[in-house]
Amino acid sequence: MKHLAATILLGPLLLLQGRHVRRVTPVLSEPPGPREGRHGAGSPLRLLILGDSAAAGVGAPEQADALSGQLCARLGRCFELDWTLVAQTGATTPDTLQTLASMPAERFDVVVTSLGVNDVTSGRSPKRWIEEQARLVAVLRRDFGAPRILMSALPPMHLFPALPQPLRAYLGAQARRYNVALQAFAAATEGCTWVSLDLAADPAHMAQDGFHPGPSVYAAWAARLAALIAVPVAAPERTTGAG
């Protein structure tokens, strides 16, 4: 009810602030570099990294410094890794479902997702978003045989320096609602893990746009994911945070 009241009362101001942010925020490109590859030695592992601009590595100078590059570098130390990155700036969960529908069916052992920020900014309710996340999991299981899905938490949008108040507080509160819902969904869904990072949105660690991660955040995110992927599939813990 508080969120609905805020939407009604602050709607015109939030709309103006959103337009202002889009107008003045630097538009960063997705970094160059490979989006698929094979390397490493050990047990075979097929990995799909799926999602939005954060999954695509926006804020890093090259893919090697982004999530995919840093995660694959870590996993290549202990796995024979066959990996694919499917991510696009601005992607929502419905966009990602459409992308998956156009891909040929293949099998992945682990899928890492990074979704939600664009769903928040597009005004989806947490309930609707979780329904779409459930469809996403069903597609990943049915068409891509994925037994493990690591679902990245939304970042702390209430700390994003690019967002003015009250837009920052409004979007941050909605992002927290998404995280609560996603954590509960993952805990109740076999093979799914909610992955959070207890990192403050320190401007020193963010990209120049004040909205995307910088390389040090991608490094911490990759380290957390790599540690979880190394855990055997039979491990009972499905919901986790850093530290």
Secondary structure: elements and pairs:
Blueprint: H1 2-24, E1 36-39, E2 43-51, H2 53-56, H3 67-75, E3 79-87, H4 93-101, E4 110-114, H5 117-121, H6 126-144, E5 148-152, H7 167-188, E6 192-195, H8 215-229, E7 239-240
Gap from first CA to last CA: 33 Å
CATH architecture: 3-Layer(aba) Sandwich
- Rg over C-alpha atoms, rounded to the nearest angstrom: 17 Å
Give the proportion of residues in helices: 40-55%
Q: Tally the structural domains.
A: 1
Can you count the beta strands?
Answer: 7
CATH topology: Rossmann fold
Strand order of the largest sheet: 1-3-2-4-5-6-7
Oligomer: single chain
Top CATH class: Alpha Beta
Characterization of the model:
With 243 residues, the protein is of the alpha/beta class. It has a single domain (36-240), classed as Rossmann fold (3-Layer(aba) Sandwich), CATH 3.40.50.1110. The protein contains eight helices and seven strands; from the N terminus they run αββααβαβααβαβαβ. The protein has helices at residues 2-24, 53-56, 67-75, 93-101, 117-121, 126-144, 167-188, 215-229, and strands at 36-39, 43-51, 79-87, 110-114, 148-152, 192-195, 239-240. It has a seven-stranded mixed β-sheet, with helices on both faces. Strand 5, helix 7 (167-188) and strand 6 (192-195) form a beta-alpha-beta unit. 40% of the residues are buried.
